[in-house]
Structures are given as structure tokens and as C-alpha cells.
Design a protein that fits this description.
Layout lengths: L15 H4 L11 H21 L9 H9 L10 H13 L10 E2 L8 H13 L6 H4 L1 H17 L7 E5 L2 H19 L5 H6 L1 E6 L5 H8 L7 E4 L9 H13 L3 E8 L11 H11 L2 E6 L23 E5 H4 L7 E5 L40 H10 L2 H23 L4 E3 L7 E6 L8 H18 L3 E7 L2 E7 L7 H27 L1
Parallel strand pairs: 1-11, 3-4, 3-5, 5-6, 6-7
Antiparallel strand pairs: 2-8, 7-8, 9-10, 10-12, 11-12
Helix pairs in contact: 2-4, 5-14, 7-14, 8-10, 15-17, 16-17
């Protein structure tokens, strides 16, 4: 598809005084400049994507820092093409490309073309989602998507509500803040500090760090979060949780929330949601499900049943910029009962006065942010162009790739699985059976394998620590990745691992 600037309407000339100092402002008089600039930037990105042959060039932080620090920010380049040349050298050339089949490190997905195209609307119009008089149709699109998301979860559409956020960390923070405010409102005696001191949050020892951070930010402190042991598949142990609840309640502590994980970062483990929901009901705790990673199962044709019990949650975190292949940031917090957003609502006469609360759909009433991007449009455009079923098929594919890789690893004598694959992450370690290593040496070997793969540019993989042992992790979120590319990563791990072992042997015999 080509666009000609000749087809654009010509704006009437502006008075000289009006535009003398601000010709770069995007308005009706700078449309052609805008189109040429965005065409040029898009062409640069497209050219880089077309020539990328590895996920990274393996740059050292010191090299990048030197190049960036050498730029004189007080001496602008008037030609935008020169600026883009500089951007290429400082960013595009050495950026990490998540779409490359040898990228298997973190929970970064390649993004869908319709969503990227929608970003241009979002950025160019610069809509702010706080009040209706700044967002109009955007408010209605976001609200409709939250209703749609609630229906996927299994919530009553008429009662539920939600809000887009910057990411899972913010969604989890907001969920815990609502839970805290609901819990303290139930107790009328004592100061707020006294009521908060007894509150406890229960979550898996493998849960995302944002739950502990939320407790810190709310003034509860990290000790307010009870880390519950997990089973062999890294799911929260229901019996261990039951014991913790009983002991804490006997000591006069108050269960504020049980935060389950539907797809933890390392293992993709999904906590037993039905059982945890029952315990939450028994003790009167808020039941939150962090499905930032596992939310792709909501549109999966093959694996939707893995989220059985998610409809029993009081709140759910969804990260569309992980499992729905959306650009950052695109997350959401969805409540089973939307009235609970009132626990964090604040009204300001200059923005959203309480006198208008029932008449005007101001999204700021449900958000921790005031100014907020129209990130919902990316998902809207994706759904209208590709449909939810196709997204679900993509997520099914990455699960299939991980399961295929699990079988491949099980056939190799030098690679050892840490746990069964549950979503699209594979955790394992390298160790030659003829070279038994102590834990410290094994951990150093694991880190060195990862460093060498990165610096060579051959592959990008992640690492994690499980019970003191450093392990390698492949995170698969690219449905276009050939299995052969993942097998090649395993080959590289074995090659580099044996190379390091040989070096150590030579040093020991020298």
C-alpha cells in the first residue's frame, strides 16, 4: 500500500506570527511533514527488520554508554534524516529483536502488525484517557474491551468492570490496593495503621515480585506477604496455605488477600484456582489471579480448561503485551464486581467532580494514573482485523513448541529438565554426566554459557535460580519460531558448555 502526499488536503497558510517559532507542531499545517517523517521512520524500521539475522549484536554496556554519552544534546541536527541515522547507530543497530527465532529469553513477544499500525493513531492524537471530555470514543472502546475481557474470564458482564494499565506490575498493585481498602473498611475500630498492621497477603513463593512490592508501596511492608511453598510443579501448595491461614488467624492476623498465579514467570505454573478460591471464601480474603502470562489461555481452543476457577476471582490481571502479542504497554485489571473500584476513587473539582460521577464515564475514577495512553486501541484493531481465535491459535503454537522442546531435552544426556513444561517456558541445566560439578561451579558455568551466547549474538536465553541452583530458561512467545531454531539453541548450549569445561580442564592440567 502506498500513500502519496499529493492526495493530502492543503491547509490554508497560517499567519507568520502564529507559526514562526513552532513549525514542528503536528497540526493541520504540518500534515505533509508528518507524513514524510513517519514514512521515513517506518522505512528505517522495516529495513532493519528485513536484515536482522540474530536477536542481538552482543554489545557491551560500556560500548553503548560511550556512544550515547558522546552526543551533544545541546546541538540539534536540523535534518531529521541525520537524526534517524544517529538513532540507527545508537539504538536500531544494537537493539534486541524479539521476533528473531533465536530470541528465547524473557516474556517479550513479537508484535502484531495491526497493533503496531494502531500505535500511530494513539501517539499522533495523544488522547488522554482520564476523562470523557479528553477521550470520547476512546473511552467507549476501552469500556467495551473490558466487558469483552470480563466475559472471557467468565464474569457477569453487567456487574464486572476493568481498566487498562501500563503492565502487570501496576495491575497487581492496583488489585492489592483495592483489596487493602476493602479489608480495612470491614474493620471500624482502631486507627488505619492498627488495622493495616494485622493484614496478610498469601502468595506462592514463585509468584511475581510485584506482590511484595505492592505491600511495600502500601506501607504494609514485605513481612505482610506470606510466601507459600509450592509443589513439584511449582504451583501453590493448598495444604501449606491452609496451615498458614489457620496459624495466622489464631494469632489474630487478618487474611487480606490470596494472590494466585496463572502462569508464573519461570515455569508457567498455574496455581490450583478452584481450591484457592474456596479458601479465600472461607477466610473472607480477596481472591486475586495474576494471569499476566497465562491470559492467552482465555482465547485458546486447546487449553482453556487450564484456567478453571479463574471466574471465581475478585480481580484478574491480564497482560495483552505478553500472550496477545500486543506492543508494550497493554495490560488490564478486571474486577468481578466493578463497584469495588470505588475503594480507590478520588474526585477533584478541576478534573472529575463527584457531582458528575454518575453522569460522565470518566475512566480516571478507576485508575491509579491520571494521564494515560489509549492503549486499548491496539487490541481493538487487532481483534477487528485478526480475531480472538487466531490469537489463541498463536498461543497454542508457542505451548506446542515448548512441549516439543521438552521432549528434545529429555533425549540429551547433558541437558536436564527442572520441571515439566506447563506453558511456553522450559527450565533446565547443562551438566555432562562425566563431569560432576559442585553447585558453585555449576552456577558459574550456567552464567558463562548465557554470557557467551549473548556476546556472540548466536542466541539470547534467560537464566533463573531454583533452590540455589542457577538454571537456563528458554521462553517461547514467537509462534513463527521453527522448532529447528530452538534445537539449534540447545546445540549451541551444549557446544559452549563443553567448550568451557575443556578450558577448565586445560587450565587444571597446565
Amino acid at each position: 500500500m502506498s500513500i502519496s502526499t499529493e492526495s493530502l488536503p492543503t491547509a490554508p497558510p497560517a499567519p507568520t506570527a502564529q507559526r514562526q517559532f513552532e513549525p514542528a507542531v503536528l497540526d493541520s499545517h504540518s500534515v505533509q511533514d508528518y507524513l514524510l517523517a513517519t514514512q521515513e521512520s517506518t522505512a528505517r524500521v522495516a529495513a532493519r527488520f528485513a536484515t536482522v539475522s540474530s536477536p542481538t549484536t552482543g554489545p557491551a554496556p560500556s560500548e553503548l554508554a560511550a556512544a550515547v554519552n558522546a552526543v551533544d544534546l545541546d546541538s540539534p541536527l536540523e535534518d531529521l534524516r541525520e537524526v534517524f541515522d544517529e538513532v540507527h547507530d545508537l539504538y536500531l543497530r544494537d537493539a534486541v529483536y524479539f521476533h528473531d527465532p533465536k530470541y528465547a529469553a524473557h516474556l517479550n513477544c513479537p508484535v502484531l502488525v495491526p497493533a503496531v499500525a494502531a500505535e500511530n493513531f494513539v501517539t499522533s492524537l495523544n488522547t488522554s484517557m482520564d476523562t470523557f471530555d479528553q477521550s470520547a470514543g476512546a473511552t467507549m472502546i476501552e469500556r467495551r474491551l473490558m466487558t469483552w475481557s470480563a466475559s472471557l474470564i467468565g464474569f457477569d458482564e453487567a456487574q464486572s468492570d476493568g481498566i487498562f494499565t501500563s503492565g502487570g506490575t501496576q495491575s497487581n498493585l492496583q488489585a492489592m490496593l483495592i483489596a487493602r481498602n476493602v479489608a480495612t473498611a470491614k474493620c471500624s475500630h482502631g486507627s488505619l495503621a492498627d488495622r493495616q498492621a494485622a493484614l496478610r497477603i498469601y502468595t506462592s513463593q514463585d509468584a511475581h515480585f510485584s506482590i511484595v512490592n505492592a505491600a511495600k508501596l502500601m506501607g504494609l511492608g514485605p513481612d505482610a506477604v506470606v510466601s507459600v511453598p509450592t509443589d513439584a510443579q511449582h504451583r501453590m501448595d493448598v495444604n501449606a496455605l491452609r496451615s498458614s491461614l489457620a496459624a495466622d488467624r489464631a494469632a489474630g492476623l487478618v487474611p487480606m488477600a490470596i494472590s494466585a498465579t496463572a502462569g508464573n514467570t519461570d515455569f508457567g505454573a498455574i496455581d490450583p484456582l478452584n481450591e484457592l478460591a474456596e479458601l479465600a471464601r472461607e477466610c473472607g480474603a480477596w481472591f486475586h489471579v495474576d494471569a499476566a502470562y497465562g491470559c492467552g489461555l482465555l482465547v485458546s481452543e486447546q487449553h482453556r480448561q487450564r484456567l478453571s476457577g479463574i471466574d471465581l476471582a475478585d480481580s484478574v490481571t491480564l497482560d495483552f503485551h505478553k500472550s496477545f502479542f500486543q506492543p508494550i504497554g497493554s495490560s488490564a485489571l478486571v474486577l468481578r464486581d466493578g463497584r469495588n473500584f470505588a475503594a480507590i476513587a478520588h474526585y477533584a473539582e478541576y478534573l472529575n467532580p463527584s457531582s458528575e460521577a454518575q453522569q460522565t464515564p470518566n475512566q480516571v475514577d478507576k485508575s491509579l494514573q491520571t494521564t494515560r495512553r489509549f492503549d486499548a486501541l491496539k487490541l481493538w484493531v487487532t481483534l477487528r482485523n485478526l480475531g480472538a481465535a487466531r490469537i489463541g491459535q498463536m498461543f497454542d503454537r508457542v505451548i506446542e513448541l515448548a512441549e516439543d522442546l521438552e521432549r528434545e531435552i529429555s533425549l540429551r544426556s547433558d541437558l536436564h529438565l527442572a520441571a515439566p513444561v506447563q506453558l511456553s517456558t522450559v527450565v533446565f541445566w547443562f551438566e555432562e554426566r562425566g563431569w560432576p560439578l559442585d553447585n558453585e561451579t555449576r552456577n558459574e558455568l550456567t552464567n558463562e554459557i548465557r554470557r557467551r551466547l549473548y556476546s556472540s549474538g548466536r542466541a539470547m536465553i534467560a537464566a533463573t535460580t531454583v533452590e540455589g541452583q542457577r538454571m537456563l530458561k528458554l521462553t517461547i512467545l514467537n509462534p513463527n519460531t521453527p522448532l529447528a531454531s530452538l534445537v539449534e539453541i540447545l546445540d549451541e548450549i551444549s557446544r559452549v558448555g563443553n567448550e568451557i569445561l575443556s578450558e577448565h580442564m586445560n587450565e587444571a592440567t597446565a
